[in-house]
Amino acid sequence: MMELVFIRHGKTAGNLESRYIGTTDEGLCREGIREIKDNLYKNIYPAADIIFTSPMKRCIQTAEIIYPGLYGSLHIIDEFKEIDFGKFEGKNYTMLKEDARYQEWIGSGGAKKFPGGEDRKTFSRRCIAGFKRALKICTDLQEKEELRENAVVSFIVHGGTIMSVLEAFAGEGSYFNYQCSNGHGYRFKADISIEGDFKGFGQIEKERIVIL
User: Fold this and answer.
1) Fewest C-beta atoms under 10 Å: which of 3, 54, 75, 102?
2) DSSP 3-state of 211
């Protein structure tokens, strides 16, 4: 068993304006940094033995704030990048509401491919592949006795990444059931074989990082 913690990165300027920020490599905004530091001061984030992040600045910066002493144990997983919003990138509802392509995307329940970007199935497959690769890294380190058996593994990633992994493996809801706000996330037990195969989640504590 391992304990897995998924935390969505802190706020960026784009998040403050409800923009679709995927491939844009925004760093944290001042408010985002303050909120993560406030949460850290309240001791709401569990200690971790190893960290995995997306390669995007907003995730790496969040990891550096929450786990400053574990930077050497940080592993970057390219597959954890946020979805490519294509033509919608950097825009929000107000800017897009008259766009027929946007209305078509909304009508599909968010399943249709973003114009010039990714579709959700492709994105989810990518995130799941990254998740499995991260787990294999953990079990390889355990075999070499470089990571303890009941390790706490922290994933500092994007909201879409969290939704993709939990939809695939939690078995308790669809993609949008696992939305979480910036700096929040999920904590749960996971049963993982020595080969890195994922056997399933234990009880998920939804949106509970703020009170852990």
Assistant:
1) 75
2) helix
